[in-house]
Amino acid sequence: MTILIEKNYPTFTIIIDNPEVKNAVDGQTAQELGDAFNQFENDPSALVAILWGAHGVFCSGANLKAIAGDRGNKVSKKGYGPMGPTRMQLSKPVIAAISGYAVAGGLELALWCDLRIAEKNAIFGVFSRRYGVPLIDGGTVRLPRLIGLSRAMDMILTGRPVKAEEAFHWGLANRIVEDGTSKLEAEKLAREIAHFPQICMRNDRLSVYDQVGLPINKAMMKEFVYGLNTLKSGEFLEGSKAFIEGYGKHGKFNNQLK
After folding, report:
1. Which pLDDT score is estimated for 212?
2. pLDDT for 76
3. Residue 133, class by beta-carbon neighbours within 10 Å (0-12 exposed, 13-18 middle, 19+ buried)?
4. Would you state the pLDDT for residue 43?
5. Which pairing describes strands 123-125 and 101-103: parallel, antiparallel, or unpaired?
6. E strands of the chain, at which residues?
7. In this structure, are residues 123 and 103 in contact, taking their beta carbons and an 8 Å threshold?
8. What span, in angstroms and rounded, lies between the C-alpha atoms of 18 and 24?
9. Residue 160: helix, strand or coil by DSSP?
10. DSSP label at 94?
């Protein structure tokens, strides 16, 4: 097994652990990754997932040696993507905790996550440009949506390495942390997110994804439907009561709903 799972509810950490190939993903590993995220999605106690690569590397992409052999990544229109979960639309957020290389298919895994916490030593890039391996797990879709067409083309056409600081300024990395701390910092952030009213947070998150590319009037109606579903849940009534009792006033985030 090259995919490990740590359950520390409400967090659910999925770990790529294959140091011999710098956490590259072959067909079996991709299957295990997809299964792990299915397990997260269906676990009511798990509110936020973290994807982390052990041994100082997030993921170096698809395992090209496996592709040349008989353990290559599955390439099919149905089911999981070649890297595993990249076609899944989960109802709950995922944070990538990135150290070392997040390149080629590893970059695509990071792009699939909702947030990316990068260590100072992190390097992003379309390193597969050198070998004629296409971006087939959302790279050409998600990258320009995150950082804009011009910068995405810079990465996609040149394949050059993008270090953490540049990635942060581009919006590719959400936060930069000290080397060796991305998993810890991701766990802290996950617990903060897990404390919020979950129905509202999840519907707002899905609204963001579902309105991409729509005309403004249709996008506004999409948002309205998600917002209405949240209001119908009655979750805001508990929040309103908490506000009256003093929770969260003056921009404070360090106390919790009762």
Report:
1. 93
2. 86
3. middle
4. 98
5. parallel
6. 3-8, 11-16, 48-53, 94-98, 101-103, 115-119, 123-125, 162-163, 175-177
7. yes
8. 7
9. coil
10. E
* CA angle 43–101–91, rounded 5-degree value: 25
8 A C-beta contact, residue 125 and residue 149: no
Question: Beta strand pairing status for 115-119 and 123-125?
Answer: unpaired
Residues of the chain with pLDDT under 50: 258
Residue 258 has what pLDDT?
40
Distance CA 93, CA 194 (A): 9
For 118-176, the pLDDT digits (tens) are: 999 999 999 999 999 999 999 999 999 999 999 999 999 999 999 999 999 999 999 99
Residue pointed to by tokens 């592709």: 67
Question: Do 199 and 235 touch, CB atoms closer than 8 A?
Answer: yes
Q: What is the pLDDT of residue 66?
A: 80
- The Cα 117–Cα 162 span in angstroms is 15
Cα distances (Å, whole numbers) of residue 133 to 61, 68, 78, 89, 179: 10, 12, 20, 24, 30
Q: What are phi and psi of 153, to 5 degrees?
A: -65, -35
Long-range contacts, stretch 237-241, CB < 8 angstroms, 24+ apart = 238/197, 239/197, 239/200
Name, in order, each residue with C-beta under 8 angstroms of 167's C-beta and a sequence gap of 6 or more. Answer: 116, 118, 122, 124, 173
CA torsion through residues 209, 135, 62, 186, sign: negative
